[in-house]
């Protein structure tokens, strides 16, 4: 019974990645076969928890707690915990990172306010830097200290998401920018946020610089990670090309440009 069950979950993981994470899915095509399916499964587990939290699903807290209990040594009692348990039988997953990810999900559930840039960095680490650490455990590294680079890359991508979704989050009553930063630069309204976005883009770029410095030491997936980093970072460049949020809405990188950027960064890797 376990083989068909895993096969069904894997098929869902592949289709979910391709449906809801097109940029990430494009990069995943460059992953070597021996790790690609595990990356899809990781994405499904983390994405499911994130969606439950974003949607305010009644069972979200219980599903997070099930993963926390598993990471502390209990038997898996949710689908996400079962997926991670299967991966942990093949890879040395960092349980501290998974627990930190769950802490970030609790932060979102509780709508915990972000007062300072340090608190925003902590939030970005919890919800995305941790994913970088778990991904590193799958891809492997030949260099000591690789964890810091992996965490920085995840945090850079999360800061990019925040800037890309600034209007959508505001409409939903969510605030992911630090209050101290808003107090300094003022409203994030369209046409009035150029200085704010310049400051936040510079912070994200610094994290990308540190994150991509660790890519050459990866044992697997260097081209894929470089492509993903390049495509995500291009969102920042698109925000700049669009006039730093002069108009409302998401900054969208055309697919053709994504492919070119991905190819260029993959070739360098």
Helices and strands, in N-to-C order? HHHHHHHHHHHHH
Roughly how many Å is the radius of gyration?
18 Å
Number of domain modules: 1
CATH architecture, by name, is Orthogonal Bundle
Structure description:
The model is unreliable at 1-5 (pLDDT under 50). The termini are far apart. By secondary structure, the protein is an all-alpha fold. It has helices at 2-20, 22-28, 33-54, 60-71, 79-88, 95-109, 117-139, 146-164, 166-171, 179-185, 194-212, 222-241, 255-268. The chain is globular. Helices cover 72% and strands 0% of the residues. The protein has a single domain (2-268), classed as Farnesyl Diphosphate Synthase. Helix 7 (117-139) crosses helix 8.
What does this entry show, briefly?
The protein has one domain (2-268): Farnesyl Diphosphate Synthase (Orthogonal Bundle).
Features:
single chain, mainly alpha, Farnesyl Diphosphate Synthase, globular, disordered N terminus
Describe the SSE topology.
Blueprint: H1 2-20, H2 22-28, H3 33-54, H4 60-71, H5 79-88, H6 95-109, H7 117-139, H8 146-164, H9 166-171, H10 179-185, H11 194-212, H12 222-241, H13 255-268
């Amino acid at each position: 019974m376990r083989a068909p069950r895993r096969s069904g979950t894997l098929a869902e993981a592949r289709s979910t990645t391709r449906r809801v994470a097109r940029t990430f899915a494009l990069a995943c095509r460059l992953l070597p076969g021996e790790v690609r399916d595990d990356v899809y499964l990781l994405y499904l587990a983390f994405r499911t928890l994130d969606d439950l939290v974003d949607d305010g699903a009644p069972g979200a807290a219980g599903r997070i707690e099930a993963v926390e209990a598993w990471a502390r040594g209990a038997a898996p009692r949710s689908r996400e915990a079962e997926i991670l348990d299967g991966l942990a039988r093949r890879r040395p997953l960092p349980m501290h990172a998974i627990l930190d990810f769950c802490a970030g999900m609790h932060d979102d559930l509780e709508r915990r306010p972000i007062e300072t840039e340090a608190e925003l960095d902590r939030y970005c680490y919890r919800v995305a830097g941790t994913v970088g650490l778990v991904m590193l455990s799958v891809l492997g590294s030949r260099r000591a200290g690789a964890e810091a680079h992996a965490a920085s890359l995840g945090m850079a991508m999360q800061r990019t998401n925040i800037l890309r979704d600034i209007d959508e989050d505001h409409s939903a009553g969510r605030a992911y920018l630090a209050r101290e930063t808003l107090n300094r630069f003022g409203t994030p309204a369209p046409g009035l946020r150029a200085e704010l976005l310049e400051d936040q883009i510079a912070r994200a770029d610094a994290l990308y610089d540190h994150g991509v410095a660790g890519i050459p030491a990866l044992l697997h997936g260097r081209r894929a990670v470089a492509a993903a980093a390049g495509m995500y970072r291009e969102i920042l460049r698109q925000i700049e090309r669009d006039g730093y949020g002069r108009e409302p809405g998401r900054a969208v990188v055309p697919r053709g440009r994504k492919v070119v950027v991905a190819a260029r960064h993959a070739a360098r890797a």
